[in-house]
Amino acid sequence: MPARPAPESGPTVRVVVRVRPGASRTKVGGRYGEGPDARLVVAVSARAVDGAANAAALAALAAALGVRPRQVRLASGATSRDKTIEIVDAPAGTDDRVRALRDGSG
Length: 106
Hints:
Blueprint: E1 13-20, E2 27-32, E3 39-43, H1 52-65, E4 72-76, E5 82-87, H2 94-103
Parallel strand pairs: 1-3
Antiparallel strand pairs: 1-5, 2-3, 4-5
């Protein structure tokens, strides 16, 4: 019996964000920095204690992009405000949605 091919998975999109813990409300949108190094701002009400802000930022980004929370994972920057987040099996148009949120048109 021939082996079945592995199921196709969508692309992984990497998003560089600037997390602002302790905000008055959770919000995804805006830019931090200029030019090609500009980062998407993710403001969360959670404090930067015991990973609470990281978890809140991942959940907020998942909601803003319309993906399941399990598709969003922290790739780097666990102790920094600047983080790289991966969206696995990202739906088509995820890059465009991230740009729209970052540039204020989303």
